[in-house]
Amino acid sequence: MPITYEPLATTTLGSAAASVTFSSISGSYTDLVIVINGALSSGLASLSVEYNGDTTVGNYSYTRLQGNGTSATSARATSDKGIGFVAQDACMTIININNYSNSTTYKTTLTRTNSNYSSDGRTASYVALWQNTAAITSIKLSASVNFNSGFTFTIYGIKAA
Amino acid sequence: MPILGIIASSKFGDVGDFESIATVTVGSGGASNAEFTNIPGYYEHLQIRALTKCSNADLTVRAQFNSDTGTNYATHYIEANGSTVAAGAVTSTTYVMVGIAASGTAGQVGGFVLDVLYYSNTSKYKTTRTLSGCDNNGSGYVWPASGLWMSTNAITSIKIFPASGTFQQYASFALYGIRSA
């Protein structure tokens, strides 16, 4: 029985970093899942993504559902690479990229992202779009502040029959 | 015991904890539904990971189990459209709602990750949960939901279909089984 759900790479930061990139991603899987866990030095920051080195912000957009313990809100942004957030104290993000290696559709991601930052706790779901039909071969994750030492990023491949 | 959910196994190195069962990909002619039959009962949970595209605008995607067309289903959902959040429920329906589909511009697709919990248990009603959405660069939805099928029968088939219209080319549905220890 072949392995269906396989870890491809893990990066654990030994020092603060502005971004983490997974490159040379094999096209032999069907979906990708990325798990991010860590804590910023302070505050809460947006988590952004770039695929295949595409820095054209107009190719990215998202729609968000968010709850902060008091209210539920929704927001949308175009020309925005946002895909979630990271925060002080503790945060967790899981990103699903379904059919990442097909070359006929734009790429849609589904994200669950959570902040347990004591001053700004949130839970949110994002659906994000990259308007490009290219197979995804690299993924750059960055935040509006540096990721702290100890942040862990793991990427998994899921292979369908 | 694997941790069920968007990340669905706690022991990824072990062969067989999370197994691919079947995949349906919609061809150029479109399709009214995608169906998985003869689902084996030896997993603990099922997960369907989908890319959704249909002929009508931003429609929900539905499912029926074991060809049951009775009013034995219910769904609770949250719909966020980029400006407002609405919560809704449907009960005594002939389907469970499992996601949302994109339409329109070529290339745009939606998706969902659906978990069907304890699908083969013969003493419990069946519960689903989904994370779904589509973003169309200026429109779209985030759409999480939970669903119920009021039957104690083991699920052996799942039929997935759009609320109206048809699935379009490149829509795909991959069924996985998740084993317990």
Structural summary, described in words:
- The complex is a heterodimer of chains A (about 160) and B (about 180).
- Chain A is mainly β and about 160 residues long.
- Chain A is about 0% helix and about 60% strand.
- Chain A contains no helices and twelve strands.
- Chain B has one domain.
- Chain B contains no helices and 13 strands.
- Chain B is globular.
- Chains A and B meet through strand 1, strand 3, strand 5, strand 6 and strand 8 of A and strand 1, strand 3, strand 8, strand 9 and strand 10 of B.
On the 0-100 scale, what is the average pLDDT of chain A? 96
Shape of chain B: globular
Physical arrangement of strands within the biggest beta sheet of chain A: 1-12-3-8-9-10-5-6
Q: What is the rounded distance between the termini of chain A?
A: 11 Å
Structure summary:
Chain A has a single domain (5-158), classed as Jelly Rolls, CATH 2.60.120. Chain A has an 8-stranded antiparallel sheet with strand order 1-12-3-8-9-10-5-6, with no helix packed on it.
Structural key phrases:
heterodimer; A: 161 residues; mainly beta; Jelly Rolls; eight-stranded antiparallel sheet; four-stranded antiparallel sheet; 58% strand; B: 181 residues; globular; disordered N terminus
